[in-house]
Amino acid sequence: MTRPVYVLGAGAHPWGKWPNKSQLQLALDAMTAALQDASLSWPDLQGLVAASSRFEGGMGWGLHANEIVQAVAEQGMACVNVGGACAAGAIAFQAAYAMIASGQYDVVCAIGAERMPKGFIPRPPGSQDDITDSDYLRWVAMGATNPAYWAIEAKRRMHEFGTSDATLAKATVLMRRNATGNRNARFRSETSVDAVLASPMVSDPLHLLEICAVSDGAAAVILGSEKYARRAGKALVEVAGCAAATGQFGDPARRIPTVSSTVRSGVTHTSEVATAVARACTMAGIGPEDIDVLEMADNSAWHILAWPEQFGFYEPGKGDWMLENGKLDIDGDLAINPSGGFLSFGEATTAQAVLQICELTWQLRGQAEGHQVPRARIGMSAVLGLGANGGSVILKA
Amino acid sequence: MSGTHAALIAVAEGLFEVLPEGPRLIGTRCASCDTIYFPAALSCRNPHCAEKRIESTLLPDRGILLSYTIQRYQPPPLFRMDNWQPYAIGLIDLGAGVEVMGMLTGLPLDTIEIGLALKLVVETLYTDAERGAVTTYKFAPLAAGNMA
Questions:
Q1: Which end of chain B is more exposed for a tag (fewer CB within 10 A), N or C?
Q2: Per residue in B66-121, pLDDT tens?
Q3: How many CB pairs below 8 Å do chains A and B form together?
Q4: Spatial separation of the C-alpha atoms in residues B17 and B24, rounded to whole Å
């Protein structure tokens, strides 16, 4: 038996490049904001789960939660550090959720904080320099950058569905328009199809403005039992669904950093995320048609078109029409990334999935100043991480 | 002939083999469920395959271009290439359920088309002061390959 879990507070440090702030400081700023939002203070917190497959600094390679409590609150709380690459924030949330749902803890925080290196994300240290590590192989054998994988998917989509350069560009235009009202976003100016197509080509057909940059940022979500949620006195936001998943055998996705796929017919593309989404829906007892707002990982413009199709929101190929006809706008049938998404934030890997959940919380409370989805009652997040990690969370007002 | 082939240094050992009739990618075949993996795999990943009887195998050396991209920016330094310039990476359906990524060669960048018939080749990627010429596998147009 599990018990219901609620979001007590959400906080974020705005995304950007913050050369003068340490990763720990970004984390503390997000924590402080989340604690304030929950009307709690450090002694109330019984556990801290950190999404910690980090790019910069820290204690060892990822003891992030420990570093945070040793800096500001030595009080014996449980620290859990979870990996999961770019999906780590969702896995951390899943762990924090389970700690409370099990009845073992009442108040637990999930956090992600990241300072990213410049440029293409390089290979992390520690693996063998041979064919057993595909992240070695993809670099030495062909130099396949992350955008190359998304570009190969986008090019295939253009071939199969006739997706145009202009439609891909419109995905960026929508994300940037959404971000104009969001003070946490890094790129907050509107752009146009012409400007997107005039930006440098990185990996055909994807231009610079159609792939996500890398950013520094931090986000924290505090979860609690019903008793604490009622005490906080805010509008209740319940965790209706929450799931982590990994890939299925035969998945046709060009999975970073592999150099080949063993493909079987009938297997869902990006199955790690599709499975997480399906599990979260089952847990919440709802279907994709019930979702008012979707915060999903748009590492490229292609993702905005393809992902909702892959997860059963509508049939393959319809994404172009949905986008072109305003159905994915903030006031459309399915608002996608009212925050502005990765395309407007730049990715701060482990922090990104936590930020998605912060955003859903603000949307469901009606606090998404400048980018509020009208009458948002059910929100979903979806994220993908290296190592075939998928995560999805459904929040309900 | 064989002496020349033996002298070839690959970007990574165990990736491909150069036979007198041409290069082949080295993969793993699960004899129990007839599944092929590239590069060589530790085990069979099919969850319904209990036996997982794996063996080394050579992949088909011809395929069809499923998709591609052109890398306009130089990748991080782990990738080395003499006289760097934008180049294409393709996704090639080798049949047998395996789709492999690799650099494309012998094709002007503006002539690449999904559906092209390609064959595997091995070319020098860069010359290292100590190791000499270091090669990688690429895919070239089938027609050009036949003429060579």
A1: N
A2: 999 999 999 998 999 999 999 999 999 999 999 999 999 999 999 999 999 999 99
A3: 130
A4: 5
